[in-house]
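step: validate -> pass
step: tokenize input -> pass
step: predict -> running
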Amino acid sequence: MKTFFIIILILLGLRLLVRIFLPFILTFVAKKAQQNMQEHFRRNGYPGGVEDVKPEGTIEVNFVPHKKNPTDKSSGDFVDYEEVK
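step: predict -> pass
step: emit ->
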């Protein structure tokens, strides 16, 4: 019976410690991750950053239309017709 109460007290104590210290630990981990990401972007450059800014009025077209292949007479649903006189 004494062991049971000791286990319950230990679990309640751990619960209290987690409620007190977990927010501080999570804040520290989040700040550390933010610093690592900032350092990573500072070293490698940010893909959507200042380098991609184009002067106003410039146009860039990235789409190239596909070339149409000449169709065979035998392919498709082409219907021959004759003129009626």
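step: describe -> The mean pLDDT is 82.
step: cleanup -> pass
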